[in-house]
Every structure is written in structure tokens, then in C-alpha cells.
């Protein structure tokens, strides 16, 4: 049980537990200078306990969770454990709406989910924040930089002849150069981005459609409701 793992974790920590947990307040959107409630101090401890309860060898989470992973490694020092969990921190994609620093599972419009159907992806990208000529803080360009180009090594945009015709970008820098000069417009970029994302997601959809166990699991997951 997680409760057991949590109890063992607390029992093994040094006396500076509060200071260690306080350092992890970023995961709750708080500063390490803020005053924290008891619940907010225990929250990082519970996440840390999850690592050991799941017997995770590799912790692959966003940069905002990195301090919790470090806390797990420090706990290994406390209990003299040689095999520490490996930290693999990845870039955090912003939400698709303006001003969203990261995606949120409580706001479906802010994220592209692995189980999203093609039509859902198309609608989300169509409504996504993507101001012309602006690269900084543009979630559509973030998706291109961190997902599309690493996956396909190129990005093809279909355009009418009067808009410059079709063009294939080999690098993200070439694309942003055209975008800032307004030689590439959001109205052309968004459909191409949706098409690329759907190509990536199609094997996942096929898996959940063709595998009975996976299909049942997806049905259960979709039945869950997010609470705050």
C-alpha cells in the first residue's frame, strides 16, 4: 500500500524533512519562500513515496517535478540505498490557450491527449493561441519544436499557390524565420500541425480500437471525472 511506503519513507528521513519538502513547493505552484500548510508539506513526501511504491527505476516527469525526484534520491542516501531512481526530466509544453504555462488535465481544451480522436485534435489546434509573427509564448510553435520536428525531422505545410504554395521545412529555425516575416500564416500552419499530430496518434487509436483489454481500460479512464 502507498500508506505503508509513505510511513517507511517518513521514518527514514533526516530531521530536516520540513526544509526538504519546502524546497519542492514549486510542484504546487508555490514559491519556496511561501508559508505552507501541513498538507502542502506532506504532499511532496507522498509523491516521493510513490516512486518507491511503484518500484520506479526511472522517473520521467516534467521539469516542475524535478525537485521531488531529487528528494527521492536524497532519501536513498538516508536509508543507504545504492540504487537510486534515475531522473529523466523533460520540457514542459504550455497549454494551448493564451497565458497557460503548462497543460492541465482539468482543462481538456488546453491539452492534446493520447486518446483524442482526429476531430478533437483538429478543433483544439484550430482554437489554440497562435498569434501571427509571434514565436515566444506560442504553444503551436512549441509543439512543432519539441514534438513534430524531433519526430518527423521535417514539417510540410500545404498552401494555395497564391499564398506561396506548399513548403517543407527541414528545421525549426527556417520555419520561425518565415513565421516572423509573416510568410507563414497561422491559418496554414495549424492544419499542418493537426495533420502531423494525428499521424503520431493514429497507432495509439488503432491499439485502443483493436485490443479488447485496452478498449475496456480506455472506457474506464474516460469515465473518471476530474475534481479540484
Structure write-up:
This protein is mainly alpha-helical. The protein has 2 domains: 89 residues, Rossmann fold (3-Layer(aba) Sandwich), CATH 3.40.50.620; 116 residues, Orthogonal Bundle (Tyrosyl-Transfer RNA Synthetase). 51% of the residues lie in helices and 7% in strands. It has a two-stranded parallel sheet with strand order 1-2. The protein has a two-stranded antiparallel ribbon with strand order 3-4. α3 packs across α4. It is globular and about 65 Å long. The two termini are 24 Å apart. About 2% of the residues have low confidence.
Question: Strand order, biggest sheet?
Answer: 1-2
Compute the number of helices.
9
Uncertain segments: 12-16
Quote the beta fraction: 5-15%
Helix/strand order, N-terminal first = HHHEHEHHEEHHH
Derived from helix and strand composition plus strand pairing, the structural class reads mainly alpha
* Average pLDDT rating: 84
Count of beta strands = 4
**Number of structurally distinct domains:** 2
Features:
228 residues, Rossmann fold, Tyrosyl-Transfer RNA Synthetase, 2 domains, two-stranded antiparallel ribbon, 9 helices, 4 strands, 51% helix, tyrosine--tRNA ligase, nucleotide-binding
Amino acid at each position: 500500500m502507498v500508506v505503508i511506503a509513505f510511513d517507511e519513507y517518513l521514518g527514514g528521513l533526516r530531521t530536516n524533512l520540513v526544509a526538504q519538502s519546502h524546497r519542492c513547493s514549486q510542484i504546487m505552484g508555490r514559491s519556496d519562500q511561501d508559508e505552507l500548510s501541513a498538507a502542502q508539506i506532506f504532499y511532496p513526501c507522498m509523491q516521493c513515496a510513490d516512486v518507491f511504491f511503484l518500484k520506479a527505476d526511472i522517473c520521467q516527469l516534467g521539469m516542475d517535478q524535478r525537485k521531488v525526484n531529487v528528494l527521492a534520491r536524497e532519501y536513498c542516501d538516508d536509508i543507504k540505498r545504492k540504487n537510486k531512481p534515475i531522473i529523466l526530466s523533460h520540457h514542459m509544453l504550455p497549454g494551448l490557450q493564451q497565458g497557460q504555462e503548462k497543460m492541465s488535465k482539468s482543462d481538456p481544451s488546453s491539452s492534446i491527449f493520447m486518446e483524442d480522436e482526429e476531430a478533437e485534435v483538429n478543433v483544439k489546434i484550430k482554437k489554440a493561441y497562435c498569434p501571427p509573427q509571434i514565436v515566444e509564448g506560442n504553444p503551436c510553435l512549441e509543439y512543432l519544436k519539441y514534438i513534430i520536428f524531433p519526430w518527423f525531422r521535417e514539417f510540410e505545410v500545404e498552401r494555395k499557390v497564391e499564398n506561396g504554395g506548399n513548403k517543407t521545412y527541414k528545421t525549426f529555425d527556417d520555419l520561425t524565420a518565415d513565421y516572423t516575416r509573416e510568410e507563414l500564416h497561422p491559418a496554414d500552419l495549424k492544419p499542418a500541425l493537426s495533420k502531423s499530430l494525428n499521424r503520431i496518434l493514429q497507432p495509439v487509436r488503432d491499439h485502443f480500437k483493436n485490443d479488447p483489454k485496452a478498449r475496456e481500460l480506455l472506457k474506464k479512464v474516460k469515465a473518471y471525472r476530474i475534481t479540484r
